[in-house]
Amino acid sequence: MGSGYHSPRRAVAAAATRAAILTNARALFLEHGYAAVTVGDIAKAARVAVPTVYASAGGKSGILSALLQPAVEDSSVGETLAAVAAADDPRRVVDLAAEGTRRDHERHWETLYGLLRHAPGEAAAREVIDAGIGSYLDALAAVADRLAALGGLAPGIDRAEALDLLWFHLGQPAWFTLVGDRGWTFDRAQSWLAAAARRALLTDPDGVRTRP
């Protein structure tokens, strides 16, 4: 057989091995915390050798990245940004951002809150988390840009401050605090965070001013 031959059966087995590693690692991380789990623990739970964990999933940081990837790449992000780009009312832009960030967190809540509420301190894990936060901030920056383009930002608030305020009101810590730590429902959190963000960001947060 030539070097270009790929066995479908081998590919299926490799995918099954990777899935077992990720599933068992996720369960261990959620139960014991990321820092307390070793690659050996994951290998034992998945019934594979330690080198197989590294070859299949890249070690703990690679596993963490794979577990967070569905949230980072969730379709709600692109759908929300498309709706934001089409919206012509700043209040609607903020409401769409609140709805979109809520949807992403709600879909992946157990993984996001379970793995990230106590952020791992290991350097490799921090790089993974920082990359995810960077993607989150990029999405919020598009929201800030749309608000600026519509002339909806309150006097004295520039794009940079708008991004800071969006992160404060709609970033991961806001959802973790209200829903995870304080037990709010997602409906209640979305409603409150959207209203608070509108008041903090917009020149006309309640839509009471008439347009010329």
UniProtKB/TrEMBL annotation:
Origin superkingdom: Bacteria
Gene3D superfamilies referenced in this protein's UniProt entry, alphabetically: Tetracycline Repressor, domain 2 (1.10.357.10)
Keyword terms of this UniProt record:
DNA-binding, Transcription, Transcription regulation
Q: Name one GO molecular function term.
A: transcription cis-regulatory region binding
Q: Which residues form the HTH tetR-type domain?
A: 15-75
Record InterPro entries: Homeodomain-like_sf (IPR009057), HTH-type_TetR-like_transc_reg (IPR050109), HTH_TetR (IPR001647)
Where in the chain is the DNA-binding region found? 38-57
- Membrane spanning residue stretches: none
Q: Which Pfam families match?
A: TetR_N
Instruction: Write down what this protein is called.
Output: TetR/AcrR family transcriptional regulator
